[in-house]
Amino acid sequence: xxxxxxxxxxxxxxxxxxxxxxxxxxxxxxxxxxxxxxxxxxxxxxxxxxxxxxxxxxxxxxxxxxxxxxxxxxxxxxxxxxxxxxxxxxxxxxxxxxxxxxxxxxxxxxxxxxxxxxxxxxxxxxxxxxxxxxxxxxxxxxxxxxxxxxxxxxxxxxxxxxxxxxxxxxxxxxxxxxxxxxxxxxxxxxxxxxxxxxxxxxxxxxxxxxxxxxxxxxxxxxxxxxxxxxxxxxxxxxxxxxxxxxxxxxxxxxxxxxxxxxxxxxxxxxxxxxx
Length: 275
Hints:
Elements: E1 4-6, E2 11-13, H1 15-39, H2 43-69, H3 77-89, H4 95-107, H5 122-126, E3 132-133, H6 143-146, H7 149-156, H8 158-178, H9 180-208, H10 228-231, H11 240-245, H12 261-271
Antiparallel strand pairs: 1-2, 2-3
Protein backbone atom coordinates (compact mmCIF):
# COMPACT_ATOMS: atom_id res chain seq x y z
CA UNK A 1 0.00 0.00 0.00
CA UNK A 2 1.32 3.44 -0.89
CA UNK A 3 1.74 5.94 1.91
CA UNK A 4 0.37 9.46 1.54
CA UNK A 5 3.13 12.01 2.17
CA UNK A 6 1.76 15.20 0.66
CA UNK A 7 -1.98 15.08 0.47
CA UNK A 8 -2.30 18.63 -0.81
CA UNK A 9 -0.58 17.71 -4.08
CA UNK A 10 -1.70 14.08 -4.10
CA UNK A 11 1.83 12.69 -3.93
CA UNK A 12 2.26 9.21 -2.52
CA UNK A 13 5.37 7.40 -1.46
CA UNK A 14 6.63 4.96 -4.07
CA UNK A 15 7.59 1.91 -1.97
CA UNK A 16 10.04 0.46 -4.51
CA UNK A 17 11.94 3.68 -5.23
CA UNK A 18 11.92 4.84 -1.61
CA UNK A 19 13.19 1.47 -0.37
CA UNK A 20 15.91 1.36 -3.01
CA UNK A 21 17.09 4.94 -2.46
CA UNK A 22 17.27 4.54 1.32
CA UNK A 23 18.24 0.87 1.46
CA UNK A 24 21.20 0.89 -0.93
CA UNK A 25 23.17 3.54 1.03
CA UNK A 26 22.58 1.59 4.26
CA UNK A 27 23.67 -1.69 2.67
CA UNK A 28 26.70 0.02 1.11
CA UNK A 29 27.80 1.51 4.44
CA UNK A 30 27.36 -1.75 6.35
CA UNK A 31 28.97 -3.77 3.57
CA UNK A 32 32.01 -1.51 3.26
CA UNK A 33 32.69 -1.57 7.01
CA UNK A 34 32.22 -5.34 7.24
CA UNK A 35 34.30 -6.08 4.14
CA UNK A 36 37.13 -3.75 5.14
CA UNK A 37 37.32 -5.21 8.64
CA UNK A 38 37.44 -8.77 7.32
CA UNK A 39 39.36 -8.50 4.05
CA UNK A 40 40.81 -5.01 3.81
CA UNK A 41 40.69 -2.97 0.62
CA UNK A 42 43.16 -3.34 -2.22
CA UNK A 43 43.71 -1.55 -5.51
CA UNK A 44 41.45 -4.15 -7.14
CA UNK A 45 38.29 -3.11 -5.31
CA UNK A 46 39.16 0.55 -5.87
CA UNK A 47 39.85 -0.15 -9.54
CA UNK A 48 36.49 -1.85 -10.00
CA UNK A 49 34.82 1.08 -8.27
CA UNK A 50 36.71 3.53 -10.49
CA UNK A 51 35.79 1.76 -13.71
CA UNK A 52 32.12 1.48 -12.81
CA UNK A 53 32.04 5.06 -11.54
CA UNK A 54 33.40 6.37 -14.84
CA UNK A 55 31.42 4.02 -17.10
CA UNK A 56 28.06 4.55 -15.40
CA UNK A 57 28.59 8.23 -14.67
CA UNK A 58 29.59 9.14 -18.21
CA UNK A 59 26.76 7.02 -19.58
CA UNK A 60 24.45 9.39 -17.73
CA UNK A 61 26.19 12.69 -18.55
CA UNK A 62 27.42 12.00 -22.09
CA UNK A 63 24.75 9.45 -22.98
CA UNK A 64 21.43 10.08 -21.24
CA UNK A 65 21.99 13.82 -20.91
CA UNK A 66 23.99 15.36 -23.72
CA UNK A 67 23.36 12.77 -26.45
CA UNK A 68 19.89 11.35 -25.89
CA UNK A 69 18.17 14.27 -24.14
CA UNK A 70 19.68 17.19 -26.03
CA UNK A 71 21.05 15.62 -29.22
CA UNK A 72 24.19 17.75 -28.94
CA UNK A 73 26.16 15.25 -31.03
CA UNK A 74 25.79 11.92 -32.80
CA UNK A 75 27.13 8.51 -31.78
CA UNK A 76 27.57 5.19 -33.55
CA UNK A 77 25.66 2.16 -32.32
CA UNK A 78 28.50 0.63 -30.24
CA UNK A 79 28.75 3.79 -28.14
CA UNK A 80 24.97 4.05 -27.83
CA UNK A 81 24.93 0.43 -26.67
CA UNK A 82 27.63 1.21 -24.09
CA UNK A 83 25.53 4.12 -22.79
CA UNK A 84 22.41 1.95 -22.68
CA UNK A 85 24.10 -0.85 -20.74
CA UNK A 86 26.05 1.20 -18.23
CA UNK A 87 23.27 3.79 -18.02
CA UNK A 88 21.03 0.94 -16.88
CA UNK A 89 23.72 0.05 -14.35
CA UNK A 90 23.46 3.56 -12.92
CA UNK A 91 19.92 2.71 -11.75
CA UNK A 92 18.35 5.99 -12.91
CA UNK A 93 15.60 4.40 -15.00
CA UNK A 94 15.67 3.85 -18.75
CA UNK A 95 17.06 6.46 -21.12
CA UNK A 96 13.58 6.98 -22.58
CA UNK A 97 12.00 7.76 -19.22
CA UNK A 98 15.02 9.77 -17.99
CA UNK A 99 15.07 11.91 -21.12
CA UNK A 100 11.32 12.45 -21.06
CA UNK A 101 11.62 13.90 -17.56
CA UNK A 102 14.65 15.95 -18.52
CA UNK A 103 13.19 17.44 -21.67
CA UNK A 104 10.12 18.43 -19.68
CA UNK A 105 12.39 20.00 -17.04
CA UNK A 106 13.96 22.25 -19.68
CA UNK A 107 10.64 23.17 -21.26
CA UNK A 108 8.99 24.22 -18.00
CA UNK A 109 11.90 24.90 -15.64
CA UNK A 110 10.86 26.02 -12.14
CA UNK A 111 7.16 25.66 -12.89
CA UNK A 112 4.64 23.32 -11.28
CA UNK A 113 5.02 20.99 -14.27
CA UNK A 114 8.80 20.75 -13.84
CA UNK A 115 9.30 17.20 -12.49
CA UNK A 116 12.17 18.22 -10.21
CA UNK A 117 11.68 21.93 -9.69
CA UNK A 118 13.87 23.35 -6.93
CA UNK A 119 11.07 25.83 -6.24
CA UNK A 120 9.37 22.93 -4.43
CA UNK A 121 12.36 22.62 -2.14
CA UNK A 122 15.96 21.41 -2.18
CA UNK A 123 15.05 17.92 -0.95
CA UNK A 124 12.32 17.57 -3.55
CA UNK A 125 14.66 18.52 -6.40
CA UNK A 126 17.48 16.35 -5.07
CA UNK A 127 15.72 13.07 -4.35
CA UNK A 128 12.15 13.59 -3.14
CA UNK A 129 10.61 13.62 -6.61
CA UNK A 130 12.01 10.14 -7.29
CA UNK A 131 10.62 8.75 -4.05
CA UNK A 132 6.99 9.53 -4.83
CA UNK A 133 4.57 8.23 -7.40
CA UNK A 134 2.38 10.93 -8.87
CA UNK A 135 -0.94 10.46 -10.58
CA UNK A 136 0.47 9.07 -13.81
CA UNK A 137 3.93 8.44 -15.20
CA UNK A 138 4.20 10.68 -18.25
CA UNK A 139 6.50 9.68 -21.09
CA UNK A 140 6.35 12.21 -23.91
CA UNK A 141 8.42 14.06 -26.50
CA UNK A 142 10.77 11.09 -26.93
CA UNK A 143 9.54 9.57 -30.20
CA UNK A 144 13.07 9.79 -31.58
CA UNK A 145 14.37 7.68 -28.70
CA UNK A 146 11.54 5.17 -28.83
CA UNK A 147 12.43 4.56 -32.48
CA UNK A 148 16.00 3.62 -31.52
CA UNK A 149 16.04 -0.21 -31.19
CA UNK A 150 18.85 -0.11 -28.62
CA UNK A 151 16.97 2.27 -26.34
CA UNK A 152 13.65 0.49 -26.90
CA UNK A 153 15.29 -2.79 -25.83
CA UNK A 154 16.83 -1.11 -22.80
CA UNK A 155 13.48 0.36 -21.81
CA UNK A 156 11.79 -3.05 -21.95
CA UNK A 157 14.49 -4.77 -19.89
CA UNK A 158 15.74 -1.93 -17.70
CA UNK A 159 15.61 -3.74 -14.36
CA UNK A 160 17.30 -6.89 -15.62
CA UNK A 161 20.03 -4.92 -17.40
CA UNK A 162 20.54 -2.72 -14.37
CA UNK A 163 20.94 -5.74 -12.10
CA UNK A 164 23.32 -7.56 -14.44
CA UNK A 165 25.51 -4.58 -15.34
CA UNK A 166 25.25 -2.54 -12.16
CA UNK A 167 25.57 -5.29 -9.56
CA UNK A 168 26.55 -8.66 -11.02
CA UNK A 169 29.26 -7.37 -13.39
CA UNK A 170 31.39 -5.69 -10.68
CA UNK A 171 30.91 -8.77 -8.52
CA UNK A 172 32.13 -11.04 -11.31
CA UNK A 173 35.10 -8.72 -11.83
CA UNK A 174 35.94 -9.05 -8.14
CA UNK A 175 35.65 -12.83 -8.32
CA UNK A 176 37.91 -12.93 -11.40
CA UNK A 177 40.67 -10.72 -9.99
CA UNK A 178 40.48 -11.66 -6.31
CA UNK A 179 38.89 -15.09 -6.37
CA UNK A 180 36.15 -16.73 -4.37
CA UNK A 181 33.05 -15.42 -2.68
CA UNK A 182 35.05 -12.73 -0.89
CA UNK A 183 36.26 -11.37 -4.22
CA UNK A 184 32.73 -11.32 -5.59
CA UNK A 185 31.50 -9.46 -2.52
CA UNK A 186 34.34 -6.95 -2.78
CA UNK A 187 33.44 -6.08 -6.35
CA UNK A 188 29.72 -6.11 -5.57
CA UNK A 189 30.03 -3.81 -2.56
CA UNK A 190 32.55 -1.32 -3.96
CA UNK A 191 31.72 -1.36 -7.67
CA UNK A 192 28.03 -2.04 -7.15
CA UNK A 193 26.42 -0.71 -3.99
CA UNK A 194 28.81 2.11 -3.07
CA UNK A 195 29.22 3.26 -6.66
CA UNK A 196 25.43 3.38 -7.16
CA UNK A 197 25.13 5.78 -4.23
CA UNK A 198 27.93 8.06 -5.45
CA UNK A 199 26.69 8.25 -9.05
CA UNK A 200 23.11 8.77 -7.88
CA UNK A 201 23.98 11.80 -5.82
CA UNK A 202 26.31 13.22 -8.45
CA UNK A 203 23.27 13.35 -10.73
CA UNK A 204 20.90 14.51 -8.01
CA UNK A 205 23.18 17.43 -7.12
CA UNK A 206 22.62 18.93 -10.56
CA UNK A 207 18.87 19.01 -9.98
CA UNK A 208 19.24 20.54 -6.52
CA UNK A 209 22.57 22.26 -5.82
CA UNK A 210 23.06 23.50 -9.40
CA UNK A 211 19.73 25.29 -9.10
CA UNK A 212 20.56 26.74 -5.67
CA UNK A 213 24.20 27.86 -5.38
CA UNK A 214 26.47 29.52 -7.91
CA UNK A 215 26.49 32.34 -10.42
CA UNK A 216 24.29 33.26 -13.37
CA UNK A 217 26.61 34.76 -15.98
CA UNK A 218 24.45 33.85 -18.98
CA UNK A 219 20.81 34.09 -17.94
CA UNK A 220 18.60 34.88 -14.97
CA UNK A 221 15.49 33.45 -16.63
CA UNK A 222 15.50 30.45 -14.29
CA UNK A 223 17.25 29.14 -11.18
CA UNK A 224 20.13 27.36 -12.97
CA UNK A 225 23.59 28.26 -11.64
CA UNK A 226 27.22 27.80 -12.69
CA UNK A 227 29.42 26.15 -10.07
CA UNK A 228 33.01 25.15 -10.88
CA UNK A 229 33.17 23.35 -7.53
CA UNK A 230 30.13 21.24 -8.35
CA UNK A 231 31.64 20.32 -11.70
CA UNK A 232 34.43 18.47 -9.90
CA UNK A 233 31.91 15.95 -8.55
CA UNK A 234 29.52 15.73 -11.50
CA UNK A 235 31.66 14.95 -14.56
CA UNK A 236 31.58 18.63 -15.57
CA UNK A 237 27.84 19.16 -15.26
CA UNK A 238 28.20 22.01 -12.77
CA UNK A 239 28.23 24.77 -15.40
CA UNK A 240 24.49 24.57 -15.36
CA UNK A 241 23.56 28.15 -16.16
CA UNK A 242 25.52 27.86 -19.40
CA UNK A 243 23.80 24.56 -20.13
CA UNK A 244 20.28 25.91 -19.61
CA UNK A 245 21.10 28.87 -21.85
CA UNK A 246 22.86 26.89 -24.60
CA UNK A 247 21.24 23.47 -24.47
CA UNK A 248 22.45 22.39 -27.91
CA UNK A 249 26.13 22.74 -26.97
CA UNK A 250 27.85 19.43 -26.18
CA UNK A 251 29.95 21.27 -23.60
CA UNK A 252 28.79 22.44 -20.21
CA UNK A 253 32.15 23.96 -19.35
CA UNK A 254 32.73 25.77 -22.62
CA UNK A 255 36.08 27.38 -21.82
CA UNK A 256 39.27 25.36 -22.22
CA UNK A 257 40.07 25.51 -18.51
CA UNK A 258 36.60 24.48 -17.34
CA UNK A 259 36.62 21.05 -15.70
CA UNK A 260 34.29 19.05 -17.92
CA UNK A 261 35.39 15.41 -18.42
CA UNK A 262 32.20 14.73 -20.36
CA UNK A 263 33.11 17.19 -23.12
CA UNK A 264 36.61 15.69 -23.32
CA UNK A 265 35.07 12.21 -23.58
CA UNK A 266 32.77 13.31 -26.42
CA UNK A 267 35.53 15.21 -28.20
CA UNK A 268 37.93 12.29 -27.83
CA UNK A 269 35.54 9.89 -29.52
CA UNK A 270 34.97 12.39 -32.32
CA UNK A 271 38.61 11.99 -33.34
CA UNK A 272 38.05 8.30 -34.07
CA UNK A 273 34.67 8.95 -35.73
CA UNK A 274 32.62 7.30 -32.98
CA UNK A 275 30.80 10.55 -32.20
